[in-house]
Amino acid sequence: MADTPPRNPLIDPNKRRRGIYILPNLFTTAALFAGFYAIVQGMNGRFEQAAVAIFIAMIFDGLDGRIARITHTQSAFGAEYDSLSDMVSFGAAPALVAYEWALRDMGKLGWIAAFIYCAGAALRLARFNTTIDVVDKRYFQGLPSPAAAALVAGLVWVGIDNGFTGPELRWFACFLTIFAGLTMVSNVLYYSGKEINLRRTVPFFAVLGIMLAFALISLDPASVLFLLFLAYAASGYVILAMRKLGKRVPGDTPEAPE
User: What domains lie within the chain, and their CATH numbers?
Assistant: First the structure.
């Protein structure tokens, strides 16, 4: 009689082993690859390629979650993998690229600014994962890490595209890096866009607006994308100011009359 193989005490034999969904995790892996590629290019002094790679990571990161929802392939593994990928692509990569491009010559202030951004991204992702079931789905609490990464990478891209060197923009880069890091962990609310239903019909002018947006981006990708994300970063503070002044923000539920 053959010997019975020893059982692993850490595995419950009554539970079936779960597999991993390939399709959404392929996009997450692509985002992770783009973020790692940005780090490598930043270390090699190819800052424009590094900045573009971060934007490409944003595209893949935006697709993986939507594809998982559409194909009903959400999983706890996918959520954790996505967070780790985001930390590389939107936490470590932008901080390192900004430091190598503009902050290195600033000494301690430079690496402290980069660390504030990196720590802000880590805290932002941790808070998002622990409050995802209790927050208002219409808003993000704090600047989303992809938008913060686009802000930092966009500055690098638009600076190079307009003939500026990193040291020439180091003070602005330092301020923007610290601003993005602190805003990620703030309580400032940002519109999430999760209410948008891609299956719902839209007016013709909405399609026309999307076409015009693509046309503007194609004319000058670096400047247009940077300005768009700069406006988005400012929008949270506009919402905060409006609420402080007692004004109703578009999208808020009207208060019931007494």
Answer: 22-196+203-244 (1.20.120.1760)
